[in-house]
């Protein structure tokens, strides 16, 4: 029982920075999206990702873009996906920079995106120390 309580408290402590950074509504919407996606309801996942992404959550922006690129939960929409990826990249989300690089047809610009992804990822590693 004591271990369960400690684990629960640790989980709450780890979740606090996300909620504080993006607001409770964004965090709740993102968690709902993950639940619906893992449960196989991509349409509801798409809806809740839009809510979380509109609250400024780069993780949600990236996942939303991925669903839009794949046509999961709705029609495929590459233009909307690119807009969400660009928004997440503006928040220096490494995965968004990487995906933009993979989508880019100009090799020079793709290389710039990949370097930005590597740079953003190196900063993420510094924050975890």
Automatic annotation (TrEMBL):
Q: Does the keyword Signal apply?
A: yes
Q: Where is the signal peptide?
A: 1-20
Enumerate the SMART domains for this protein. Answer: SEL1
Report if keyword Protease is assigned. no
Q: Which InterPro entries match?
A: Sel1-like, Sel1_AlgK, TPR-like_helical_dom_sf
Q: Which domain of life is it from?
A: Bacteria
Could you list this entry's UniProt keywords, alphabetically sorted.
Signal
What's one Pfam family the UniProt record gives for this protein? Sel1
List where the protein spans the membrane. none
Q: What is this protein called?
A: Sel1 repeat family protein
> From what organism does this protein derive?
Massilia phyllostachyos
């Amino acid at each position: 029982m004591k271990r369960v309580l400690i684990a629960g408290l640790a989980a709450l402590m780890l979740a606090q920075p996300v909620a504080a950074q993006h607001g409770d509504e964004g965090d709740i919407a993102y968690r709902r999206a993950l639940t619906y996606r893992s449960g196989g309801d991509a349409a509801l996942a798409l809806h809740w990702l839009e809510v979380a992404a509109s609250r400024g959550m780069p993780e949600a922006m990236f996942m939303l873009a991925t669903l839009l690129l794949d046509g999961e939960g709705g029609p495929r929409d590459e233009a909307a996906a690119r807009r969400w990826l660009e928004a997440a990249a503006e928040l220096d989300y490494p995965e968004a920079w990487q995906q933009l690089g993979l989508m880019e047809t100009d090799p020079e610009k793709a290389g710039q995106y990949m370097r930005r992804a590597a740079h953003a990822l190196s900063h993420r590693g510094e924050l975890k120390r």
